[in-house]
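S1.2 Input.
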Amino acid sequence: MLEYLQRLAWDPTAPVPAGWPHGWYGVFLLFCVPGGAGVPPGSLLGHRDGLGIVFMTVLYFLSDVALAPAWEALLHVLRFLGRHVPRFGKALSMTLALIKKTMPAGSLAGPTGVVLMGFGAGLPFGRAIAAGAGYGLLTSWLLAIAGDMIYFAIGMASTLWFDGLIGDPRIAALAGLVVMLALPPLVHRLRRA
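S1.3 Output.
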């Protein structure tokens, strides 16, 4: 299983190996792969195993909730390093000051920016931006997860659409990844315009 996850990091179109668990458990494990690389194979596996789109969406949400404590711990380590490594701390303080200036809590720019960061960069970045903007733990995670869920929906829909159109799961996974990687920068560019 670990070997497949390592391979998936370098080749997200790799087919699910014969020994990989099927059903909700196998899909959930793939959805837990950071960076969205598990979305195309997880969506294809779930679709082939007869899991509905709504059920897979719930599984992805649960994977985000399951990963949140690990990301939160990583953010605490970064804060610790910021306190004990002067240069790192200075860079972290400057970043947080910029975040607070551009996305003040209580304004529409704040929640929208956090959701877009969760969409474009992922959970830990959305949470870090939200914390820097003054949002609490639960609100930060909910906003970051909301953005990540939009990212997932686009990835799953495009992967399944390409699979139905082309009929080749590897090409469908690759096309789904291209959409997932190309869309966030496009949305950020449109937001700035």
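S1.4 Remarks. The CA atoms of residues 123 and 144 lie 5 Å apart.
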